Amino acid sequence: MLECLFFQIVFFLHIILLPIYLYLTWNFNYWRKRGLHNALPLTLFGSFPSILTRNRNLLYEIDRLYRRYKHRRRMVGIFFVRQPQILVVDMRLAHEILDTNFGAYELTAACSWMRHRRLNKLDKLAAYSALWSSGEHWKLNRSVACAALTPTRLKQTHELWQGSCKRLMQFLEYKCKGASPEALDAIDLVKRFVADALCITIWGVDAGTLTRSKKPNLFLQMTERAVRQTRSLRRYSLLSAVMPVFSKLWPFRLISNAVENYFAQFTNDALECHRELRNPSGMRDVLSYLYTQQHTGHLSDEALTGLCMAMLLDGFEEICSTLVYSIYYFARDSRVQSKLRVEVLQTQQREHCTAFGFETLKSLSYLDHCVFETLRLSPTVQYCRRICSRANVIQLSKRKSVQLEEGTVLCIPVYSYHHDAVIFCEPNSFIPERFDNTAPKELMERRVFLPFGTGPRSCLGKDMSLLVVKAAIASLVSEYTIRICSQTQHGYSQTVDSFLLNMNGKLMLEFKKL
Ligand code: HEM
């Protein structure tokens, strides 16, 4: 009787598990049939076990594959759970995909996901972001955002960030007063500063994130909420890769109603200030610029909110991460920090100034190299993904080529390029001096260094980000020494070193007034 029950259970288990097994492994011959070498996929996991085990960042697994194939193949077939994708190993091919043959790969993973959801129906405001849009929408969004961030306009806005830096230093002083030793959470500090700098640049008003108020700041809370929501898209796209029907059953929203309403109201209030000329930015902010466009008949109120919100959310996390990592590397390396301080203080003396002007900030070459070294070692965008917008043939060697179908996803492993010892000696060390011989610009032109991507879809916030990050660092190191404190030595560094900077966690550092 028991034996019979046992066989029945085994039989039913087979009936249930066999279709799942077949479903998950059905595609595993996909690349072999097309004559492309593929990294051996595992059932359930595909080429990346950590997608499900979550024991380490996906980027390390991409890096493992990159190292295995880098001198042997231009690209290899991989499986994102069961979805066939391509890992682009050859940097020249990456250049072709991102830049010279852009027409064939114009979609990014983000905008392709948004396209499938019929843009504008859900997430009205996200539709104004160049990051999330495609086709004509993308061209329009990108051109409006780029026009608001031209070098001339950035020069005008620069004074606003100087105000943000001043508020940062006042806030730091206030925070350090009671603390002993002066240990502060660097992530919290950076988030407050970046929210302040972006808010004054975009809306022309003070977000109040660097005030002494003990109450949680609503602007920061809403920004973080929106960033968290876009992050959870990763989990959602994983489920969609296993079961494409999932995305139809559960239409994920990128920006919740509450966040959308908050920023719509915020934009309205800021516009009121503009109309009554109570604008503290002296009309140098992005909203004022867009408002003049609105008067010439181009933009609706919804577009104004959408464009402003997109600019905040497309760059907030990236600037925060770059700034937090930079500060962390300075705290770990007193030699670099001292050398940087000498450059900053000597320039201050020479120019007889405390705050750095636009041109002066650009001329601080060691600071420039420190920021680029941070972006090399810890690129905030670890890999770029592109999607074939039409069927396309890629030459693998003189005699061999492979046909890629429309919709094929290609992964460009930026982190792995930045950590390739053939290009960057001692790739895992923080050495800003490496850029003394070869300037970051030259490496970017050779497409071996891609902190801001390359080609028509490269980052449009690059110049603004570099200026904001450099202004904050110059202010900090000119007045404080930054050191790792005991809490960080025995815990947090592990999390940071494992690359995934946990922006919801803490990074305790010591700030000591000079
Ligand atoms: C240090 C800070 C930043 C870093 C490291 C960074 C990095 C990048 C990278 C690597 C890409 C290309 C992604 C790809 O090719 O798939 C990108 C795209 C983009 N970035 Fe940034 N970014 C930063 C700040 C910003 C800021 C402040 C803004 C907002 C003004 C912004 C807006 C965008 C947009 C809209 C795109 C998509 C462009 C398009 O598809 O046409 N970024 N960023």
TrEMBL record:
This is Probable cytochrome P450 309a2. One of its GO terms (cellular component) is endoplasmic reticulum membrane. It comes from Bactrocera dorsalis (Oriental fruit fly). Heme binds at residue 459. One of its GO terms (molecular function) is oxidoreductase activity, acting on paired donors, with incorporation or reduction of molecular oxygen. May be involved in the metabolism of insect hormones and in the breakdown of synthetic insecticides. Its cofactor is heme. Gene3D superfamilies: Cytochrome P450. InterPro entries: Cyt_P450, Cyt_P450_CS, Cyt_P450_E_grp-IV, Cyt_P450_sf, Insect_CytP450_Detox. The chain crosses the membrane at residues 6-24. It is found in: Endoplasmic reticulum membrane; Microsome membrane. PANTHER family: CYTOCHROME P450, CYTOCHROME P450 28A5-RELATED. The gene is LOC105224383. Belongs to the cytochrome P450 family. Keywords: Endoplasmic reticulum, Heme, Iron, Membrane, Metal-binding, Microsome, Monooxygenase, Oxidoreductase, Transmembrane, Transmembrane helix. It is a peripheral membrane protein. SUPFAM superfamilies: Cytochrome P450.
